[in-house]
Amino acid sequence: MFMKKNMRLLGNALLMLSLIAFTGCKELVAFLDNPVNAYMEMDETELTIHVGETAVRRAETISTNPVIYTSSDTTVVTVDPLTGEVTGVDGGTATITARVEANDDFNADVKTYNVTCYKDVSYASAGDEGRLVCKDGHIHKLTGEEYCQAERMAMVAYVGNESNCAHGLAIAFKDINDEAGSLDWEEAKAYVDTWEEKYPVANATWRMPSNDDYQYMVIGCGSTTAYRSHLYFSYRMDMEGLNSKMTEAGAEPIVGLHWTSDAYDKYNAWEVHMNTKSEEDDPVLLAFVYFGTSSNGDKTRYCLAF
To answer: In the CATH scheme, what is the code of domain 47-119?
Structure first.
């Protein structure tokens, strides 16, 4: 009798193990204790991607409900609600939330992680005017310095390819004369190699702005003045937009005569003359002039082409 009883208990145990193997862990846990923890697991360390890149970080759970993924800022990072695949959209930081809702058998659970998305200059797009270009070649917003660790070099002033650039132009934060002193036209053109060596920016190149560069940067920042393919003396453009965006970005204002890379004749080079507001109603203007000879020691503000 004792032997038969033990054999019967052993048979029941084997039957239970077979049931576990057949039905799986979820049903067993639900059978033993209702409701129970969903036991969600996910890597919650920060993830770094670039605009246009994708990555997948999935949450695992024993719950019979699906895991749903959401992004705190879809303008920065989007996420597939079912697969958890994230896609970089714009520079910034967003929080990805993985959530499983409660049901009769399992409790709800939540896991999160932060995604920092970097925007390379090659992904410049309309609306980036006024943003920062840092030494790492990334475009950053003016706020959120936690994702702008590199040195700030320039401000995006134009997005497009109409000025001999692939993606856009950015104006430097300061004149080269702050460290190079007074330079004539030839010296200012040659100094760009030194500037490039001292302040390299990934995927971008420093140059002395041409007349076209200045026009496109002013127009790119909101000027309604029309572009001119053939300039005349003292042609003026409204540069209020460029001036105000530079001020907001913390860049030094552009004031006075500045060289362009274009020659007027064998003795003169085109310059731009910029003024700032002296009275509340005065416009901020940029004027193209050529009365300065190439031997003058005027100022120079380089731009980044990317």
So the answer is: 2.60.40.1080
